[in-house]
């Protein structure tokens, strides 16, 4: 049991010493880790795996439809790995009010739950009806793109 505890502590990158020993040079150990000579510990490997899981697969039809429907807005940030599109303020062709949008695509399924849209006007958040209209337009366009893609 003691051996298992020692192996677990060594795997996490912790240094185990007996209470009476003082022959460890902690400054050289810290310098060696900072220079990269320490290798990868179990804790580091688990943390890097957790960071890789933050990447979200997005639905390509919803992604393309979002770009096409919101083409009147200037794109500020696009991150296909997390599924986020952030735009600047722009005025739709048929309206006089300027909007800014943030789109989050959180799932690879062509489903309404995969799409989250946040609209903002210069005076604050846009109405729920405007957000719903944009979401509906994006999902309708995504379905059209999927149907067109299956015909090929």
Strand content: 15-25%
Question: Major sheet: size, sense and barrel closure?
Answer: 5 strands, antiparallel
What order do the SSEs take from the amino end to the carboxyl end, as H and E?
A: HHHHEEEEEH
Total strands: 5
Uncertain residue segments: 13-27, 29-34
Mean pLDDT: 76
Distance N terminus to C terminus? 63 Å
Shape: globular
- The helix-and-strand class reads alpha+beta
Rg from alpha-carbon coordinates: 25 Å
Number of helices: 5
Secondary structure: helix percent: 40-55%
What strand line-up does the widest sheet have?
A: 1-2-3-4-5
Q: List the quaternary state of the chains.
A: single chain
Summarize the structure.
By secondary structure, this protein is an alpha+beta fold. It has helices at 2-11, 26-34, 42-52, 60-69, 128-151; strands at residues 75-79, 84-87, 99-105, 115-121, 124-125.
Characterize the structure shown:
The chain has a 5-stranded antiparallel sheet with strand order 1-2-3-4-5, with helices on one face. It is an alpha+beta fold and 152 residues long. Helix 4 packs across helix 5. The longest helix is centred in the C-terminal third of the chain and has 24 residues. The protein is globular, with a radius of gyration of 25 Å. It is built from 5 helices and 5 strands. About 14% of the residues have low confidence. Strand 4 and strand 5 form a beta hairpin. It starts with a helix and ends with a helix.
């Amino acid at each position: 049991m003691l051996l298992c505890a020692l192996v677990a502590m060594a795997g996490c990158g912790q240094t185990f010493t007996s209470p009476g020993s003082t022959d460890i040079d902690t400054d050289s150990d810290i310098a060696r880790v900072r220079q990269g000579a320490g290798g990868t510990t179990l804790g580091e490997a688990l943390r890097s795996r957790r960071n890789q899981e933050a990447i979200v697969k997005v639905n390509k039809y919803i992604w393309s439809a979002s770009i096409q429907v919101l083409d009147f807005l200037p794109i500020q940030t696009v991150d296909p790995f997390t599924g986020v599109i952030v735009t600047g303020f722009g005025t739709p062709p048929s309206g006089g009010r300027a909007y800014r949008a943030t789109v989050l695509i959180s799932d690879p399924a062509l489903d309404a739950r995969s799409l989250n849209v946040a609209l903002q006007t210069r005076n604050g958040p846009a109405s729920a009806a405007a957000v719903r209209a944009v979401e509906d337009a994006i999902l309708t366009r995504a379905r059209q793109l999927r149907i067109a893609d299956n015909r090929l």
